[in-house]
């Protein structure tokens, strides 16, 4: 049993080390969302939950847009309220947009954020 524990710790340490090497070789400025996921230690499950949330919100956005709705603040509030506590809503939105995820929805969220900042 002790051997497995040592092996697991070794593998985890090795994986962490390899990940650190990879992040040094990549231009992380091009991948701000991936950088957030790594820095905030988002798990695979948490990552999947985030994308489930985004798909749900994007579907609601499309329906509301088709219905002629112009105010999507409730979707942004829902996103911020359901977002993993390890992530900052604004930072996550800008990072998602930069990497091309849900661009129209993220542009809408950014517009709301910027309008609120001007008030």
Description:
- InterPro entries: DUF1878, YhaI-like_sf.
- This is DUF1878 family protein.
- The chain is built from six helices and no strands.
- The chain is an all-alpha fold and 119 residues long.
- The longest helix is centred in the first third of the chain and has 24 residues, at 2-25.
- It is 76% helix and 0% strand.
- The mean pLDDT is 88.
- The chain starts with a helix and ends with a helix.
- It is elongated.
- The protein folds into two domains: 1-26; 31-118, YhaI-like (Hypothetical protein YhaI fold), CATH 1.10.3750.
- Rounded to the nearest angstrom, the radius of gyration is 18 Å
Overall CATH architecture of the largest domain: Orthogonal Bundle
CATH class of the largest domain: Mainly Alpha
In total, the number of strands is 0
Mean pLDDT: 88
Q: What is the distance, rounded to the nearest whole angstrom, between the alpha carbons of the first and last residues?
A: 61 Å
CATH superfamily of the largest domain, by name, is YhaI-like
| Element order: H for helix, E for strand | HHHHHH
Question: What class do helices, strands and sheet pairing give?
Answer: mainly alpha
What is the gist of this entry?
The chain has 119 residues and is mostly helical. It has six helices and no strands. The chain is elongated, with a radius of gyration of 18 Å.
């Amino acid at each position: 049993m002790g051997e497995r524990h040592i092996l697991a710790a070794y593998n985890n340490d090795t994986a962490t080390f390899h990940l650190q090497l990879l992040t040094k070789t990549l231009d992380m400025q091009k991948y701000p969302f991936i950088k957030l996921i790594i820095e905030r230690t988002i798990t695979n499950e948490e990552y999947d939950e985030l994308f489930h949330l985004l798909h749900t919100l994007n579907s609601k956005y499309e329906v509301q847009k088709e219905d002629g709705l112009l105010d999507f603040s409730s979707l942004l509030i829902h996103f911020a309220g359901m977002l993993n506590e390890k992530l900052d809503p604004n930072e996550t939105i800008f990072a998602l947009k930069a990497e091309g995820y849900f661009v129209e929805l993220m542009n809408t969220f950014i517009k709301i954020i910027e309008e609120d900042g001007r008030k």
